[in-house]
Every structure is written in C-alpha cells, then in structure tokens.
Design brief:
62 residues, mainly alpha, 2 helices, rod-shaped
C-alpha cells in the first residue's frame, strides 16, 4: 500500500512540473511574439518614412 501512495505523489509532482513547463513556454511565446511585433512595427515605420522622402518629380522631369 505504501508504494501506491508514493506513485501518486510522483504523478502529482510530474504534473506540477509539466504545468510549470507549459507556463514558462507560454510566457516565452508571448514575449517573443511581442518582440517580433515591435520590431516589425519599427521596420515598417522606417520603410514608410523612407518612401515618403522619395521625390518623384525629379524623376519625371528628366
């Protein structure tokens, strides 16, 4: 009977470890997605600013 109690305790510990692993993995995914989003917004902002500075009148008059 003592071995059954130990086995249940080990199962519970494994479950807690998996829950912690999933939480850490989920937080990592959220933080990574946030970082990628911010990087893309910054790159597209710079691209838009570069496109706005292009003056097509010089190209059309030549």
């Amino acid at each position: 009977m003592k071995s059954v109690g130990r086995l249940r305790g080990r199962r519970g510990m494994a479950t807690v470890e998996w829950i912690i692993l999933v939480i850490v993995f989920g937080l990592g995914l959220v933080a990574g997605a946030w970082a990628v989003r911010n990087a893309l917004v910054q790159e597209y902002t710079e691209l838009i600013q570069a496109i706005e500075t292009v003056d097509l009148q010089d190209c059309l008059t030549k």
